Amino acid sequence: MSYDGSSYNVTDTSGKAIGSITPPATDGTFSGLKISVSGTMQKGDSFSIQPTRSSLDNFALATTNGAAVAAASPAVTSSATANTGSGSITSATVASGYSLPTDISLTYNASAGGFTSNVDVSVGGTSYTAGTTIPYDSSKGMTISSNGISATITGKPANSDVFNISANKGGTSDVSNSTAMSNLISSKSMSGGTDTLTSAYANYVNDIGNQTNQMKSTSTSQTALLNQATSAQQSVQGGVNLNEEAANLMQYQQIYQANSKVIQIASSLFQTILGALN
User: Fold this and answer.
1) Are 141 and 120 contacting, i.e. CB atoms less than 8 angstroms apart?
2) For the chain, what are the domain ranges?
3) Mean pLDDT of the 3-24 span
4) Which residue did the predictor score with more confidence, 233 or 249?
């Protein structure tokens, strides 16, 4: 995150812009991470955010007592034993801050074409007060929510069939919470809902391996370029190549010997001419 004098700009590690926080706003949420800023910033100030870098530092075994594991769901669902239709209700799920002050009872009324509830509920974002008819389409089913607790009814219920959502008192003979946790391994909860935990980890390891290999290749090529540049610089700056210098010395020796022979022949001719004149 960097401050350009007017806004806080957030980018990922590749430099791609994710978003910005423009005062008077002091916080923003980016890719699930909430960032809050405070204090006086100067233009050019920047911050590196690594929220998961130390996430494993404090990992440790919390308990060896199986009874301390929250394997059961805090809310359970059930169908009345007198039901005659083919309707069913899924296990209940709860959100953070849920509450269940009163057990929820849903009764199907065939003539009205829907359910009635003993408490206020919502379906698909629409709120229904206690006692009002909640339209039901057996081909689609519906998810009932109330105070952070939800469950889905499917199938074709018969008239007066009842479905209940109750507090799970004691939590015996129920492992729905641990089942939901185990299902995380196959649910596509990573990479914006496109990857499972396993595939996301595999992609992460593969990405690190590819980047490492690219860095090694880049290092090798850059080292070769450096060696070439060094050789060229040494050649221009008078660097000595022993093989080249030895070859030059042999060439100079041959030139010297050839010139000596020429001088010798010239001297002999000169002596011959002088002898002829005498």
Assistant:
1) no
2) 1-51, 70-185, 189-238, 240-278
3) 90
4) 249
